[in-house]
Every structure is written in C-alpha cells, then in structure tokens.
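Hi there, hope your week has been kind to you so far. Do you reckon you could talk me through the fold, stretch by stretch? Thanks so much in advance, here it is.
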Amino acid sequence: MQRVKQVAAHITGSSQTKGLPALEQKHDDDVVITMAIRSPLCKAWKGGLKDATTDELFLEMFKARSRPFDVRPLVQDICVGTVLTPSSMYPARTAALAAGFPESTAVQTINRFCSSGLMAVTDIGNKIRAGQIEIGLAVGIDSMSQNPDDGSPPQSGLVSCNQAAKDCTEKMGWTSENVAVDFGITRDEQDAFAARSFQRAERAQAAGYFKKEIVPFTVYQKDRVTGEKKLVTVTEDDGIRKGTTKEGLAKIRAAFPQWGNSTTTGGNASQLTDGAAAVLLMTRRKARELGLTILAKYITTAVTGLAPRIMGIGPTYAIPIALKQAGITVEDVDIFEINEAFASMAVYSQRTLSIPAEKLNPNGGARQIATGLNELHRSQGKVLVTSMCIGTGMGAAAVFVRD
C-alpha cells in the first residue's frame, strides 16, 4: 500500500501542489526519458525501406543507442511494440543479440494495434516505477512492405452474432466513413486538414526539424532492373507530398464509395508505412548517475474502449482520462500529437477536445513521442500529449513533461 501511495504521489505531486507545478517537481525515482529517436518513415512497397526485412529493421533500431556512451550492457529489459511481424519474438530477440545487447537483457513483444509503441513505453515505464528494473528500452516497429495486414481471422457464429463483435472485423475505411456521417464531418474539412498536415510536414522537413530525431538506417535495397541487393543508407522520410493543396486533394476520388458519404480518400488518409522508433527510459537517479541528459519525464498512460464502428475517435475518450490522471487540462498542454489515420477522426478529435490548431501536430502527421519531444524542446514547450485510435475500438493517450 505504501508503494502505491508513493507512485501516485510521483504522478500528481504532493497534496499541497497540484496541476502542472506538481508534474514539474523532480524526484529520484521519476521515470525519465534520455533518448527518443526514430527511423525515416518510408512508403510501403515504394519507399526507402521497402526491401528491408523485419529483422533488419529491428537490428538497425537496436544499434541506435544513447550517448555519451554505450548503455547496452545496462539495459535490463526491452519491450517491442509490433503489430504485423509474424513470430515477433524471434526477430526481436535475435536482433537484440546481433546488435550487441548482452544475453542477460530480456526481450518481450506486445501488440495493441496502433498504440503498440506507446504500450511498450508504458510497459517499461511501469516496470521502472514498480522498482523491477532501473533501465529499459521501448521500441515500436512494423514493416507494411514485408508483413502486410491480411485482415481479421474468421469469426465463429457464436461471436459474430454480437453486432459490436462483428464490427471489430470491418475495414478501417468503413469506420472512417461512419465517423464522418455520424458527426457531420465534410469532405472539404477533411481535405483542408490533410493539406495543412502535408504543408506543415514539408516545412518542417525543409527546416531540418526532424534531423535530431531520425537515425539513418543502412539496409538492403533491390535494384529495380537487375534485382541485385545493395546496401543503402536512408536518411529522411519519403512520404511527405510536397506542394499539397486542398484544391489538389479535392480532385482525388473516393476510396470507399460503397460506404457513408464517400469522403475518405487516398489524400486525406494516412499512407502505409515502414518504420521504427525507440525510447530509452530509466529512473532520474540512474540518469544522473550516468550523466545522461534528461529529455522528459513520463507521467501516465490511459487506455479505454469505445464502439468499434467509430474506433477512430478513440483519442477523444483517452485524452481526457490521461489529463485527469495527470491533474492538468487541455490548456496546460503545449503539443498534441494525435494520429491521423483518417482526417475524419483527426478533425473530430480537434473539434471535440477544443484543441487549438497550432498545438495539434505542428509538424504534420503525428509521429508521436520522438517527434513530439523533439518539437517540445525546439519550441521550449512544457507538456506533450500523444494519442491514437486503436483497431477494434479503443483509444490511448500519454502525458510527458519536458525536463
């Protein structure tokens, strides 16, 4: 019971201090982040990582490590969030060993669809907070090129007779159209949001904002003519559509004319992507002992469910819970990184939560923790909230405070 009280106190501060000032207090056993990095995010089947095998992506992500010295011998546990990778424990464990982590470093994989990377961070953070480990690495990784999603497995009639259960297996495009119809979100609103996202990402890339968070990946690529494999180094995102305008997006045909009002298109929905990210977490005490720069304090994660047919609005359910757990409000948050699976859900989330446009995905389509913390430091903001919808009808959100 005493340990539970201590954990609660370190999330929300003492009873005398509330809100953001409580979160800014520093304690030796705070869970802190000393590294938040990612790979270039590349278009599936067409981009720079299309020929990289899943274990190669694991290897490159594991090889990227904190400075000013190699912390691999000190990492006690690795948690990998991955959705598509078949038999994921094999590439996770073998790549960790090949990357130089000692045999004593434990590895596990976790899958909660689009929140899997955040769940890895949450798992490691909770283990540190509970005193089970001092240092852990959280990773998120998937290759759509190598492991395309084949959809849900067949359902027993004993399950599918329940409408909500049946809805869990429907296509994501169907859920996007449901959101647009149910909440009156127009094609024009979705195209405007998507155009702004591309424009912000193009501006951020041109300004070099992503350079601090991206780790170059050296992987195999096949020659288009000969099929011969050669090693190449991929250094930047290749899915940002330069010169995108709302008028241009308006010309793209509907992706799902069979559903709803047919407002979802290939221009206002997210691309299929290959990529990875990693976050190194430890106690503040350990970070100070090792002389590592602390980027942020991990505060809390909230996960909740909702109707599967409108799964895209999960952030509107999860974010208020996370803010309440942290003892802060929307006004206290400097940056929201909310996934843009479909513009319909992003528009709804912004509208429902009253998030100012300048605070939502300021560098374009959300890349979550690595991009959010990088931008928080660049802009000298204080609080980051990351959030995403989750297939089958869930939402997740987490709160971080810049140190």
In short: The chain has 14 helices and twelve strands. The mean pLDDT is 94. The first helix runs from residue 2 to 12.
